[in-house]
Amino acid sequence: MKGSFFSFTSALVCLCAGPTVLRAQSADPTCRYLPGDEGWPSAEEWSQLNASVSGRLIATIPQGHVCHDPTYDASACAELEQMWSLPQSHFDDPSGFMSAYHQNASCDPYTPRNTTCRQGNYVEYAIEVLEAEDVIAGLKFAQEKNVRLVVKNTGHDYLGKSTGKGALSLWMHNLKSISFSNYTSEPYTGPAVKMGAGVQAFELYEAADKMGLQALGGECITVGVAGGYTQGGGHSFLGGKHGMGADQTLEWEVVTANGTLVTATPTQNSDLYWALSGGGGGTYGVVVSLTAKAYLDSIVGGASLAFTDPTIDPDTLWDTIAFFLETGLPAITDAGAHVQWYVAGPVFGVTVATIPGATEDDMREAFAPFTEYLDSHSIAYQMNVTLFPSFLQHADHYSGPLPYGTIPAAQLQGGIFFPRSGVASNGTALISILRNVTTSTNFYIAPYALDVSRAPSSPNAVNPAWRGALAYFMVIQFWNYTVPVSVMHEQERILTEEIMPPLQELGSGAYMNEADVHNPRWREEFYGTNFGKLTEIKKKWDPQDLFYATTAVGSDAWKVGGDGRLCRA
After folding, report:
1. Residue 2 has what pLDDT?
2. Which N-terminal residues, if any, form the signal peptide (predicted)?
3. Are strands 261-264 and 249-255 parallel, antiparallel or unpaired?
4. Are 90 and 155 in contact (CB under 8 A)?
5. Of 458, 392, 363, 389, nearest to 215 (Cα)?
6. Structural domains of the chain sorted by starting position, each given as residue range(s) with its CATH number in brackets
């Protein structure tokens, strides 16, 4: 049982069986209340909230409870263990989230059956949001009762923004409306899509395809589009031609901290529009819907490439990677591509390069500087080129199979942007660092590249580092659930303290959605020169600091204690 309306009712019956207890409550507490505190809302107060949201308040139970006594279920546990690292194991659960670091082995399928299933960082309650009034009710309750508040769609967040100990969650996942229109405004006239906050990329892609359109969403096709993806910037297969996800925004419908539903556009509540379009999610307001640009569908060219000689000399390998960075990759991105590639130990490959509107000949031409180098140096490789008549088919081939794909969600990662000038001037040092990471640590390199230097039709808060970058270098290690959690915490320490600092000295800026949660330089790296302006907008729209998310603008007002309690800094 994942947590249900019935579970809330059952809990309420138990809690209400005895006499009502009046509890003392501070008028201005320093910390958000946790269960067991005198100020924690009573069962009657939770019941009143439940009634105000039409019975859609959920008392959550971590779904891993089926792997632990006294609710152990062998078959359910075996199924959960098999699927635990995949997104679909978590996004339909009202309290589920995908950050293995923040799960902290509190209630998962890998600890012994007789280990207590702890609530840990899972939220205590979730409101299944179906309309803006549900959000308003949740905001009012959290503010009045001094309860931590989080906003969650899929829980597809590596930094733990969509969960929190003792929190009330606004679960946006079932706001699934999608409609299309011909949009007219001063900055943009053309096809547009309005989507509820719960729409995921695969749902958007399928709906747009039926209309003969394409729209931007994540390569991981289960990511929610209107949430942290677009609000954090959002890169896409289509980005080399159309820009960032945040560059597509036309309108936001958002409930502000004072419980008001407003529309934010480039001309109406323009500061809020600017902040939501790339300035980070979960902190300025609660997005109910997003209206974004859509485009006429087209053919889509794709390509992948891998070396076929497992015994390639290491020096030859890294000389080849250096050429790829300095010459091959710029040529491919200049052709309008979004490129994903990797180095894992002695293995190099391009997993996918995507160019909307390109033919197979166009793809080969874009890769020609690199493939000519490989041929001239007698380096064996295999290159596969594809041409699909629609974007949906391309996405299904490279990120599928639809609807969920096979990309795991559990990993540690850090990242850094490198501008073209940086690769040219510091290429030797960069190659040396990357080589050391892939040969002496348990991490591998999984960069991607696209040119999004052109200005969007309306100004937004996308990290300026995106605009001059050649590539974003991600350092990744998949989470190992079979070892003690302390082992993975040590790997996180190595990432933060040993691996990332040399890269940070060479590069500039990081993508907030795919970054190290413990990055001590998160303010300047995630937000760049926008941080000061974003802080002012945060103070205007959320003066009482209701919204908190790790590394979000305004999070400096709070700190999380060793017990998970959220307190004023």
Report:
1. 45
2. 1-24
3. antiparallel
4. yes
5. 392
6. 3-171 (3.30.43.10), 178-296 (3.30.465.10), 300-526 (3.40.462.20)
**In the structure, how many helices (H) and strands (E) does the chain have?**
18, 22
As a whole number of angstroms, the distance between CA 439 and CA 32 comes to 45
Task: Name the burial class of residue 113, with classes exposed (0-12), middle (13-18) and buried (19+) by CB atoms within 10 angstroms of its CB.
Answer: exposed
Task: Tell me, rounded to whole angstroms, the distance of Cα 248 from its chain centroid.
Answer: 17
Strands 213-214, 149-152: pairing is: unpaired
Cβ-in-10-Å burial (0-12, 13-18, 19+) of 210 comes to exposed
The distance from CA 289 to its chain's CA centroid, rounded to whole angstroms, is 17
In the predicted model, is pLDDT for residue 14 greater than 60? no
Q: Determine the average pLDDT of the residues in 30-42.
A: 96
Q: What is the DSSP letter of 56?
A: -
Collapsed DSSP state (helix, strand, coil) of residue 551: coil
Q: Look at 309 and 511; give whichever has higher pLDDT.
A: 511
The stretches of 384-513 forming alpha helices (DSSP H) are: 391-399, 420-440, 485-494, 500-506
Cβ contacts of 193 within 8 Å, gap of 6 or more: 178, 179, 180, 181, 204, 207, 208, 213, 215, 291, 292, 293, 294
Type of residue at 496? T
